[in-house]
Every structure is written in C-alpha cells, then in structure tokens.
Amino acid sequence: MILVGHLGATEKDGQYCKSRNVKQSERFFHDLLTRLGTDYVDVVMLHNFNVMNDYEQATKPGGQADLARRLQQEGKARALGISVHRVDVAARAVEEGLVDVLMLPAEVSPVRCLSYTLAQVGVSLALPGVKDRAELREALHTLEATAAEQDFGMLVAAFERYVEGECVYCNHCLPCPVHIDVGQVHRLVDLAQLGQDVQAAYDVLAERASACTGCGACMERCPFGVDVIAGMERAAALFE
C-alpha cells in the first residue's frame, strides 16, 4: 500500500475546498496523519493545479512546495508529487525537477495509457487507480496485450485534456455557497440519461439542483470548463 496525502485539499463548512494557504494546508495535512494513525505518508502531493499562475504561486519562496520539502525533511513524507489537469503545468513540474510523482488524468484505454507511461525515459513505476475488479483486470491486461493494443501513437497528438465541458464528478468546483453536491448531481443526470432510475438517490440529496443561485463560483474553479449552472437547470428539470 502506498499512502498519499494532498497539500491544499482542505474543508470549509463541511465541504471539500482547495486552498493555497500554507498554514491551512499544513494544519489539514497533520489532521490527515492523526486520522490515519500514522507519522508519515509515502507521497505528499501538491494538490489540483489547473493553470500556470496557480503553480507559480505554490512554488514561490514560502509557498506550498517549500512546505512539502520541509515535511520531507521532517520525515513526514517520503516523496513529493503533484496532481494536475493540464499538460503544460505537468511538463513544467517535471522539467524543473520539482516532483518524484506525477498524477495526471487520461481518457485513453488503460493498456495504451500504461504503455505510453512506461515507454517514457526515466519512468520506473506506473501506478493505475482502479475503482473495481473490472478496471483492475483492464490494467493488468497490459502485461499480455498485443502490440496493436499497446500502440499509443495515434493518441499522442490529440491527447491534451479531458473533453472540454464534460463533468468527471471530481468536485473541484466546491465549496458551493448553498451546499449542492455538484459532482453527484451531474453523475445522477448522466446515469438517468443512460436509462437508470436514480430518482430516489436524487431525492435524498441534502440540497437539490434548484437551490443553485447561479453565482458562477463553481465554474471559475472547474478544471474542465463545465457549464455547471446549465447542468443544475437540467437536473432540476429532470428530477424536480
């Protein structure tokens, strides 16, 4: 088991909230260690970078990157990583030698994604994240995949990010001022469009989509350009 803790993943009024405040990040990191009953994590991850100036803020003197290095020196983290949604930010972190571990989302097949990753010079380990046995089997198929299945050439030019405007339920858009679980609402809409009956799951949400005030704060935070306000309107029309 490899244990990872994210610097900048905090909480506000009971909701997930991204923060670049160093003191707040350190407080929540130590809270993580306490909750997990451990003295250290294997990887301390600089959390959720979508734009370059956000990266520059975190890597300036006294920023989150310096905090991460100090935690390493104190023995509270073995390696330093970064989670990003943009290729240019990921490339800069690697080129500057900032991190040991890179966390980057992909939409390609597990076999091609892992084959591409392992083909890169200097990469010694590719750690796939799986949510069930089916995804685990797909990842393990890399070990016996044919050359055609592993061929990622046609994907490299096109692969930059997730499809723009597509919600991936990450909830990086939170906190919501009226406490809507934006990712869950979008997920239920998508499931309903696939023909699943999810009305009961929607009905027990703490706040419904119709509570949306249209403030737009979530859309400013979304790394994928999702029109959240329109999504809440669709959900209200569908379920309410």
- The amount of helix comes to 40-55%
Biggest sheet strand line-up: 1-4-5-6
What is the typical, i.e. mean, pLDDT?
A: 89
Strand content: 5-15%
Topology:
Elements: E1 4-7, E2 9-12, E3 15-18, H1 22-36, E4 41-49, H2 52-59, H3 64-73, E5 77-84, H4 87-95, E6 101-103, H5 110-119, H6 133-140, H7 147-150, H8 153-156, H9 182-193, H10 199-203, H11 217-221, H12 228-239
Parallel strand pairs: 1-4, 4-5, 5-6
Antiparallel strand pairs: 2-3
Quick overview of this protein structure:
This protein has 12 helices and 6 strands.
Explain this structure to me?
This protein is α/β, with parallel strands linked by helices and 240 residues long. It has three domains: 1-105, TIM Barrel; 108-158, no CATH class; 182-239, no CATH class. Helix content is 42%, strand content 13%. It contains twelve helices and six strands. It has helices spanning 22-36, 52-59, 64-73, 87-95, 110-119, 133-140, 147-150, 153-156, 182-193, 199-203, 217-221, 228-239; strands spanning 4-7, 9-12, 15-18, 41-49, 77-84, 101-103. The strands form two sheets. The chain has a four-stranded parallel beta sheet with strand order 1-4-5-6. Strands 2-3 form a two-stranded antiparallel ribbon. β5 (77-84), α4 and β6 (101-103) form a beta-alpha-beta unit. α9 packs across α12. The N and C termini lie far apart (43 Å). The mean pLDDT is 89.
Features:
alpha/beta, 4-stranded parallel beta sheet, TIM Barrel, 6 strands, single chain, 12 helices
